[in-house]
Amino acid sequence: DARVTQTPRDKVTEMGQEVTMRCQPILGHNTVFWYRQTMMQGLELLAYFRNRAPLDDSGMPKDRFSAEMPDATLATLKIQPSEPRDSAVYFCASGGDRGEAFFGQGTRLTVV
Amino acid sequence: GDSVTQMEGPVTLSEEAFLTINCTYTATGYPSLFWYVQYPGEGLQLLLKATKADDKGSNKGFEATYRKETTSFHLEKGSVQVSDSAVYFCALSENTGGFKTIFGAGTRLFVKA
């Protein structure tokens, strides 16, 4: 059963610390998305990649966030330094050429 | 830019009631349209989709028809169950060199027994 895997599932960190979230997309999918979900803002697209190349990261605060795909089986989202307002659930999703997005279970980040 | 607008929730219904969740979109081209569902503590799951005008997507008793003339994709179900309680997201995806998926704000549905 192919699925998107995200680690860690939960992360509590202190303000100012670096946070790295990882995502393993479904094998064969060529598009990877990072979304952030909060009660106030809903589901926001942070960045997305096609064939490992970043196509759009306009939704991401550039000064502290970075997203990369070191290889086809790994996508990372890094926050440095983290702030309390970054507390949210971060979702990775992957997709093929039909436009559908398959979501991981998310990383719940709490910055204290 | 592209956007999706869906009705605000929460929507509260009794079991076996009829459900409609409205969704309208704006897009520059010819997007594919989707409904996703999110259960507590989980990621979003694809519920149904339609790829061109007049297509009807259906799954698990839910239906939605792609209406290009009204730029709408309303979700309907004839008889809801308690287990349908979840958050429902309308979304569009357009091929702009890659499929960028844009979501609406989500509508929370509560179904009472």
- The average pLDDT of chain A is 93
Helices and strands of chain B, in order, run as EEEEEEEEEEEE
- What structural class do helix, strand and pairing data of chain B support? mainly beta
Give the N-terminus to C-terminus distance of chain B in angstroms: 41 Å
How many strands of chain B? 12
Give the overall form of chain A.
globular
Helix content of chain B: under 10%
The oligomeric status of these chains comes to heterodimer
DSSP, total strands of chain A: 11
* Beta-strand residue fraction of chain A: over 45%
Order of helices and strands of chain A: EEEEEEEEEEE
Low-confidence stretches of chain B: none
Q: How far apart are the termini of chain A? A: 36 Å
Q: Report the sheet-strand fraction of chain B.
A: over 45%
Largest beta-sheet details of chain B? 6 strands, mixed
Percentage of helical residues of chain A? under 10%
- Cα gyration radius of chain A (Å): 13 Å
Shape field of chain B: globular
- Average pLDDT number of chain B: 93
Major sheet details of chain A? 7 strands, mixed
Describe this structure in words.
The complex is a heterodimer of chains A (112) and B (113). Chain A has 112 residues and is mainly β. Chain A has strands at 5-7, 10-13, 19-24, 31-38, 42-50, 53-56, 65-71, 74-79, 88-95, 102-103, 107-111. The termini of chain A are far apart. In chain A, 38% of the residues are buried. The mean pLDDT of chain A is 93. Chain B has 113 residues and is an all-beta fold. In chain B, strands 2, 5, 6, 10, 11 and 12 form a six-stranded mixed beta sheet that branches. A four-stranded antiparallel beta sheet of chain B has the order 3-9-8-7, with no helix packed on it. Chain B has a two-stranded antiparallel ribbon with strand order 1-4. The N and C termini of chain B lie far apart (41 Å). The mean pLDDT of chain B is 93. The chains are: A mainly beta (112), B mainly beta (113).
